[in-house]
């Protein structure tokens, strides 16, 4: 898919996105997002950015963490997702923007998160470069996504889960084609080890990829 097709897809699924995520993860997705926020190092009073914020889950968790003295911005290129996010918390700054050309100055944020966005950008190194650019020196980016595992048992489970659970559930919402894209996008997605190398290549100093949820998901943690 090109970037316009990806944006259109996320605009189409916006009305059912949150409900489907809850169903498909058996409610576990919030735990994974809390782990991501924790690994970002966000603390009270910080200025934080959530890239590919979608309907705002991680940005809302960041807002709880930084408190009233902090500030959170969520950025996404799907305006329908941003419209839903804005209704959930008008105090967060919601910005329409591209993860490959973030509309923020260098070294603007104390922590950056990204949930299920890196797999969908058309240029992963450029997206990582933008995360690096907008972070303050010493700050951390935490990137949550499916894990492109090399473990045959985990891979077999992922394939079964995507076909039997994800696509089947999406079909009941009339979103078969929109969610069938996940399996091929995961196949193209770099492994955790490759993500670590890519992050180091754009300048991050300390990088670790943590497999979570039995290895089906992963969080890339990269410090500038």
From TrEMBL:
Superkingdom, taxonomy of origin: Bacteria
Protein name (record): 2-phytyl-1,4-naphtoquinone methyltransferase
Stated family: Belongs to the class I-like SAM-binding methyltransferase superfamily. MenG/UbiE family.
Reactions catalysed: demethylphylloquinol + S-adenosyl-L-methionine = phylloquinol + S-adenosyl-L-homocysteine + H(+)
EC class: transferase
One Pfam family recorded for the sequence: Ubie_methyltran
Keyword Transferase: yes
EC number: 2.1.1.329
DNA repair listed as a keyword: no
């Amino acid at each position: 898919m090109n970037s316009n097709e990806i944006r259109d897809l996320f605009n189409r699924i916006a009305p059912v996105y949150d409900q489907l995520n809850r169903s498909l993860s058996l409610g576990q997705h919030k735990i994974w997002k809390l782990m991501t926020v924790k690994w970002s190092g966000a603390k009270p009073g910080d200025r934080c950015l959530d890239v590919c914020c979608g309907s705002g889950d991680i940005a809302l968790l960041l807002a709880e963490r930084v408190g009233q003295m902090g500030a959170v911005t969520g950025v996404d290129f799907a305006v329908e997702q941003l419209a839903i996010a804005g209704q959930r918390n008008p105090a967060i700054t919601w910005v329409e923007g591209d993860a490959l050309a973030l509309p923020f100055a260098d070294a603007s944020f104390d922590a950056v998160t990204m949930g299920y966005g890196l797999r969908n950008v058309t240029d992963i190194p450029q997206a990582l470069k933008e995360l690096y650019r907008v972070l303050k020196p010493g700050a951390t980016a935490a990137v949550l996504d499916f894990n492109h595992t090399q473990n045959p048992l985990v891979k077999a489970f992922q394939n079964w889960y995507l076909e039997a659970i994800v696509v089947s559930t999406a079909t009941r919402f009339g979103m078969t084609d929109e969610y069938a894209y996940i399996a091929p996008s995961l196949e193209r997605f770099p492994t955790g080890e490759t993500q670590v190398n890519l992050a180091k290549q754009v300048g991050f100093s300390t990088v670790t990829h943590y497999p979570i949820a039995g290895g089906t998901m992963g969080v890339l943690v990269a410090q500038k």
